[in-house]
Design a protein that fits this description.
728 residues, alpha/beta, Rossmann fold, six-stranded mixed sheet, six-stranded parallel sheet, 42% helix
Length: 728
């Protein structure tokens, strides 16, 4: 096919844009160097202004670093009248000429919306949409879409189909790529949705929901720079493997100030290194645990069982258990976390003792038995002076520790789970006996020895919210770090207690959650998204939208996945694939005990032919699979240590979720189903972009057999198979 006639002219324009980008970089660097060169002298205001200039120029330099990403990826011609058009080049960031006229428009700018949204029937004023296939600065090919002024064209669901399919056919690497050049219409609607409130995005495998969420973060920071730049944006991922996989997407879009974290990363100082049994994990995630913890704190707020007695001079001061119970009950009625209210209990205790002191002093005066308790000037001690003397008395400190102890969240949980009496008291009428017993475990002698689990993390955070700081420093806030917007991936796997944890970190209730009910593997699997939303901020009505098109997974593989999902008893819809490859998923049945060796052989073949390969097996089978890969001389990566840098990666279902590979080898599907259910198998079979192979000795699950039969009988009409080596 002959090259596009506009290729030389467009290449020249792109070259000019890069020249201006270099000039902008030099200007930002010069500003930085000139301000730094002025030194630290001058007035305080001058120093502050210099610091601001330096920070601004450094941020600008960071934004202007594109690496190997292309600056310009498209163009739109918009009708002004019947004869004239406005032309805008769309790219990763805005670039202007010497006269501040735009050479490249930032993809997030309002004028760029038509690049992603226009269709034949709703052209949004466009005459032409042009997609560039580039390699760095070099323009390789051009794809044009022409629009009729009256909107009489077709209404294809794909924007720039040639550019999109070329991007989909590229081999995967250990890092997620941005999709800024190929964002589709329904994806763009999510990306540009308004900031306020909770936006929940249901998207099946391959719909690009993770990439959409990350692009939404970049869009919101561009559109709502103030206040989000100060308040911050948090992206929450399911594990560290996933965070390493996505970590380059936002920098490639010009945003590097977004916080990436897992749930455990939001609670500093707590390392989850153990695993709960299934029932314990489910109970710990249940929203009822909020009441259990609140009761556990309340149970530590109690009056004394015996009379409080202390000597003061020649006087004896006494408080009855009923009097201490009144103090505790009064403090319980007051708002605020537990630990800060200890000062109130202390004040009430001191006041009650001062009342007893005054009464005892009056009695001694009447009987003239205790003149030594009067100050030098003959007057009794006032409340402030009395309190100064008794607050640190061992008897008072000991009474406070029994009535209203200072509690750290980790201590509270360690004591609660390690003391059957405390657990019974806190959970009575809330949990069943079996649920209560599932939480019990031996009390660790020290917190360093505590075997925290992922399910403990939200509980510790809940306890921290109930307790407050043990000894807050001046100006210290008891509340966790808040964010102006929170983006959550794999939201279907967050327990109610985890969702409460996120709600506490939302400044204004602005959140974006993406997930797929069909990929839920947790014990608290929500039946509907309403089960998730009830635990999130409700300042504005939530919005639920769906992504319906699968851009990643070929139709043949989705035929298999659809049968597995249907058997998993879920109402989640299977997204429609936009492409087929003509490759039917295959199986290899082997003798018992030989599955790991065959998996290693298949992985070696696929790595030589396809690119990146994931070997997915049950968690219990990973050691045998690792040994087989090593024995076969296959270089493979452990994602916990090396990320996804190797061509072959060994994973179980919890860690493969959200990732994609050119090919996937599923080791013993029946073992995966036995460990994490049919939804886990659905996750495993929807990771590849090209090739799926199942290796088994045990009988295949019936749903998988039906899916393979369906894929093999796919009619020739429908989507045309695509050559993986095709170019735009």
């Amino acid at each position: 096919m002959s090259p596009h006639p506009d290729l030389p002219a467009e290449q020249a324009y792109i070259d000019r844009a890069y020249e201006r980008l270099e000039a902008m970089r030099r200007a930002a660097a010069d500003l930085r160097d000139s301000v730094i060169g002025e030194g630290r002298g001058g007035t305080h205001q001058a120093r502050v202004e210099r610091d601001v200039f330096v920070q601004t120029s450094l941020a600008r330099l960071e934004q202007l670093q594109l690496g190997r990403a292309s600056l310009v990826f498209g163009r739109i011609d918009r009708a002004v009248d019947s004869a004239d058009v406005e032309r805008f080049y769309i790219g990763r960031l805005a670039v202007s000429d010497d006269h501040q006229e735009p050479l490249v428009v930032d993809w997030r700018a309002p004028v760029a919306e038509a690049f992603y949204r226009a269709t034949g029937q709703a052209p949004m004023g466009l005459r032409l949409r042009r997609h560039f296939a580039t390699e760095g600065r070099r323009l390789l090919a051009i794809e044009d879409e022409l629009f009729a002024v009256d909107g009489a064209g077709d209404d294809s669901e794909l924007v720039g189909p040639g550019a999109l399919l070329a991007a989909l056919q590229r081999s995967r690497s250990g890092q997620m790529r941005d999709i800024v050049a190929t964002v589709q219409r329904e994806q763009d609607e999510v990306i540009r949705a308004d900031l306020p409130g909770v936006l929940l995005v249901q998207g099946g495998p391959g719909t690009g929901k993770t990439a959409v969420a990350l692009h939404r973060a970049a869009y919101l920071l561009y559109t709502y720079r103030f206040p989000l730049e100060q308040q911050g944006v948090l992206v929450l991922g399911p594990n560290q493997v996933f965070l390493r996989y996505i970590e380059q997407v936002l920098p490639s879009l010009g945003e590097s100030g977004v916080a990436l974290s897992t749930l455990s990363g939001l609670v500093p100082g707590v390392r989850a290194r153990a695993v709960d049994p299934a029932l314990a994990a489910r109970v710990k995630g249940d929203g009822r645990m909020a009441e259990v913890l609140a009761r556990a704190v309340g149970d530590r707020q109690r009056g004394l069982r015996r009379d409080f007695v202390m000597g003061f001079g020649s006087l004896t001061l006494r408080l009855s258990p009923a009097a201490t119970a009144v103090i505790v009950a009064t403090a319980k009625r007051r708002p605020g976390p537990h630990n800060p209210r200890r000062r109130q209990v202390e004040s009430m205790l001191v006041r009650a003792l001062h009342d007893r002191y005054l009464a005892a002093l009056a009695r001694s005066r009447r009987s003239m038995l205790a003149p030594g308790t009067i100050d030098d000037d003959g007057s009794e001690l006032g409340l402030a002076d009395f309190g100064e003397q008794v607050r640190r008395a061992p008897e008072v400190v000991g009474a406070l520790d029994r009535m209203w102890p200072l509690l750290a969240p980790e201590d509270l949980l360690n004591d609660l789970f390690g003391a059957p009496a405390l657990l019974e008291l806190a959970s009575r009428g809330v949990l069943s006996d079996a649920e209560r017993d599932a939480l019990a475990r031996p009390r660790a002698r020290t917190l360093d020895e505590a075997q925290w689990t992922p399910g403990d993390v939200p509980l510790i955070d809940e306890a921290r919210a109930l307790l407050g700081a043990v000894r807050p420093r001046r100006g210290e806030d008891d509340q966790p770090r808040g964010y102006g917007h929170i983006i959550v991936d794999e939201a279907q796997d967050l327990s109610p207690m985890a969702l409460r944890m996120l709600a506490r970190r939302s400044i204004s209730g602005s959140m974006t959650l993406v997930g797929d009910l069909g990929q839920t593997t947790a014990g608290w699997a929500p039946a509907t998204w309403g089960d998730v939303l009830r635990h999130l901020p409700t300042r504005r009505p939530p919005r639920i939208v769906s992504l319906t098109v699968n851009y990643r997974t070929p139709a043949e593989i989705m035929d298999v996945a659809a049968e597995v999902l249907a058997a998993a008893s879920t109402d989640a819809a299977v997204p429609r694939s936009v492409r087929a490859t003509g490759r039917v998923p295959s199986t290899r049945q082997v003798a018992p005990g030989t599955v790991p060796g065959e998996v290693a052989a298949v992985a070696r073949e696929l790595a030589e032919e396809e690119g990146t390969v994931a070997v997915v097996g049950a968690t219990a089978d990973l050691p045998a699979l690792a040994a087989a890969l090593h024995a076969a001389g296959v270089a493979w990566g452990d994602p916990e240590r090396a990320g996804l840098a190797e061509k072959v990666t060994l994973l179980d279902v919890p860690r493969v979720k959200g990732l994609e590979f050119d090919a996937v080898v599923v080791a013993e599907p029946a073992a995966i189903v036995g460990e994490v259910g049919l939804r886990g198998l659905f996750i495993a079979v929807t990771r590849p972009t090209r090739e799926l192979v199942a290796v088994h000795a045990r009988p295949l699950p019936d749903a998988l057999v039906r899916g393979l039969r369906r894929a093999r009988s796919r009619p020739p009409e429908g989507l045309e198979p695509l050559d993986d080596r095709a170019a735009v």
